[in-house]
Amino acid sequence: MRGLHSDGARLTLEGISEKLQEAYHLSSVEKVTFRQLSASALIHRDAVEFGNGMKVRLQELEEGHRLEVQALASERVGDSERQFIRRNA
User: Fold this and answer.
1) Global pTM value
2) Which ranges of the chain have pLDDT less than 70?
3) Which of 38, 54, 58, 69 has the least CB density, counted as fewest CB within 10 Å?
4) How many angstroms separate the CA atoms of 54 and 50, rounded?
5) What is the DSSP string of the chain?
């Protein structure tokens, strides 16, 4: 994720461990939104937000997860994408 500092970017997170699945009620593959939890540079501030509203700091994710960028926050979202987001939120 280094270099991706775009709050609101939409991603697909794959390979979610059973531990995280159980703790946060997730599937092995989830659509997530990149979030910056703080403006402070002195703390771990980057996280992903799952569709169920749970936010997990990147440091809490285990090795082996795969992230695929679906859209950056600066990109315009089309009507079909908005409908998909509303249905799955």
Assistant:
1) 0.67
2) 1-6, 39-41, 43, 74-89
3) 38
4) 5
5) -TT---TT-EEEEE---HHHHHHHT--SEEEEEEEE--S-TTS--EEEEETTS-EEEGGGSPTT-EEEEEE-TTSPPPHHHHHHHHHH-
